[in-house]
Structure formats: structure tokens, C-alpha cells
Amino acid sequence: MRNLKKLALGFVIALGLMANAHAAGGGLAWDKAPNKTNDLGALQNGAKLFVNYCLNCHSAAFMRYNRLKDIGLTEQQIKDNLLFATDRVGDNMKVALDPVLAKDWFGKNPPDLTLMARSRSGHGGTGADYLYTYLRTYYRDSTKPTGWNNLALPNVGMPNPLWELQGEREPIFEDKEEHGHKVQIFKGWKQTKPGTMTPLQYDQAIGDLVGYMQWMAEPAQNTRVRIGVWVLIFLSVFTFIAWRLNAAYWKDIK
Fold first, then answer.
1. Domain count along the chain
2. What digits encode the pLDDT tens for the residues 101-123?
3. 127-134 and 199-217 helices, crossing angle to 10°
4. Does any domain span residue 201?
5. What would you report as the CA-atom Rg of the chain, rounded to the nearest whole angstrom?
6. Domain holding 198: CATH number?
7. Distance of alpha carbon 92 from the chain centroid
8. Is the dihedral of CA 35, 133, 59, 208 positive or negative?
9. pLDDT tens per residue across span 196-227
10. Model-level pTM?
């Protein structure tokens, strides 16, 4: 048992050292995404951003448009604001982009985004944290075929789909020497061209978009959490009742 505890402690320490080494080596720490899965207004705005900026190249083939009624939209609102000309409200969110052309343009076919907020979790945080960081760390890079690069995903094949909203920025690095090696530490951003949104407005918009993608990955998650709380309360009450019944049943038996 003692050896097992030592092994587990060593494993935890090793993970901590790996995370510290990653940060010290210039790796980008993920920002914490705001939790907006219960904010209907934010989810509706996120759905609008998703349809207008993401659904042109990426699909969400496991989500139907009419499921958006769960975030407070009416069927008519979905038809008027979120559907393309050939789509119907009961259709899946599929994209008309030819996979062959997409591979030629971007190097690979853009992935489906239905479960992206759940599948991209890692040592840096949740999938929502990754997406929130990724969509806010694009910068211009003339050495890349698309003209764009990303701190969270270096050498990214996708250009910045929201550059008109965010504008154009350059990352600021500071050179440091650690353990005999020179590393670049990210220090911040320099705005080179303004967008249609201020930095604060853009961060809020990305929070709405990521919140929608988080909801889309599991639309029933809020219901699941609410039911889970009531189940735990019921089990707690039932456990107390069972304990008292057991005490009453055995009180005269020694």
C-alpha cells in the first residue's frame, strides 16, 4: 500500500513538472472560457455567429436546426435568421463545401464541430477553454499560405474566420534563457489593424460562440445536471431514512 501511494504521488509530481516545463518552454496556457450554457441570450448569439462564420466550411452533422428551439428560438426565427436557402428546419447542420476542394485549399477536410467542445479537452483545460483560447490567438503571418497563424495551434491550416471582427494583431514575445536554452515567452498583443469590435466585445462574442459549441456538444447537459442534483438529494434523504429504519429494526436485538 505504501509503495502504491509513493507511485501515485510520483505520478502526480511528474505531471506537474511536465506542465511547468511546458509553460516555461513558451507553451501557451489556455484561458478559462466563461460558462454560458445557461444564458439563453448568449447561446442565441453564439448560434448566429456559428452559422455565419463556422458553418461555411465546417459542418455540425449531428445537430438539427430545429434543436435550437431548446435555447429559446422559435421555428420562424430559425427559418428567417439561421437557415440557408436550400435548408429546412429539420435538416442537420451540414455544409455544401466539396471535401476534395477543402483538402486542396486547407490541406485537410475541415472537421465536424458538433462534439469539438468535448473532444479537445487536455492538460490545459476543457475543450471550451481550448476553443476560447484558439479563436482569440490568431495573428498575421506572411510566411504561411493562408497568411495566418495561431499561438494555440501553431501552423494552423485554417485562416482566421473572424478577422473582420477582431482586426489584425501581432504577438509580443520576450527572449529568455532557461537551462542554457533561449526560449520565447509570450507577453501580449499589439493591435495593427482595428476590427469592427473592441477587444472586450470580441472576447464576449467568442465566449458566446464557445458557449453555444459547448451546449451543442451535449444539449441535454443542463437537464442532466439538474436531475443529478435531485437524485443526490433523494439518495441522501433515503440513506438517512434507511439508517433510522435499520436502527429501529435492530434496537431490541443484541
1. 1
2. 877 777 788 899 999 999 988 88
3. 150
4. yes
5. 24
6. 1.10.760.10
7. 21
8. positive
9. 999 999 999 999 999 999 999 999 988 898 99
10. 0.79
Burial (0-12, 13-18, 19+ Cβ within 10 Å), 211: buried
Domain that holds residue 184: 27-244
Q: Which residues of the chain register pLDDT less than 70? A: 1-27, 85, 254
The set of residues, in sequence order, having a beta carbon less than 8 Å from that of 125 and lying 6+ positions away, is 30, 32, 33
- Residue 167 within any structural domain of the chain: yes
In a domain, 253, yes or no: no
- Tell me if 15 is assigned to some domain: no
DSSP per-residue codes, the chain: -HHHHHHHHHHHHHHHHHHHHHHHTTPPPPPPPP--TT-HHHHHHHHHHIIIIITTT--EEEEEGGGGGGGT--HHHHHHHT--TT--TTSEE-----HHHHHHHHSSPPPP-TTHHHHT-BTTB-HHHHHHHHTT-EEE-TTSTTSEEESSSTT-SS--TTHHHHEEEEEEEEEEEETTEEEEEEEEEEEEEE-SS-HHHHHHHHHHHHHHHHHHH-TTHHHHHHHHHHHHHHHHHHHHHHHHHHHHHHTT--
Q: Please report the pLDDT score of residue 27 as a whole number.
A: 57
Q: How far apart are CA 193 and CA 169, in angstroms?
A: 7
User: Crossing angle, helix 40-49 and helix 199-217, to 10 degrees?
Assistant: 90
